[in-house]
Amino acid sequence: DYGKYAGPIFDISTNNGGMYLEGDPSKPGNIPNFVAYEASYANPDHFVWNLEHEYVHYLDGRFDLYGGFGHPTEKVVWWSEGI
């Protein structure tokens, strides 16, 4: 249950469709994660979109962007949420 457990386990807000957690790639042993869930209120196309959307955040964070999502030199919300 995303709404019940994602906040306490990952310390994230759950008022969304999922979250990509990069961590700190400069630290040895860092493991990025993404958390997605199946929204009971959405149509079947949304389920695939949600997984795809969070996976694209993962790929973007691993291979395209420097620093974290809120890194001061990276104003990237328009880029990464538009994908």
Automatic annotation (TrEMBL):
Cofactor(s) needed: Zn(2+)
Record key words, sorted: Hydrolase, Metal-binding, Metalloprotease, Protease, Secreted, Signal, Zinc
An annotated GO cellular component: extracellular region
Biological process according to GO: proteolysis
Molecular-function GO terms, alphabetical: metalloendopeptidase activity; zinc ion binding
Coiled coil region boundaries: none
Location of the active site: E54
Major localization class: secreted
PANTHER family on file: COLLAGENASE (PTHR13062), MICROBIAL COLLAGENASE (PTHR13062:SF9)
Name assigned to this protein: Collagenase
Species: Vibrio parahaemolyticus
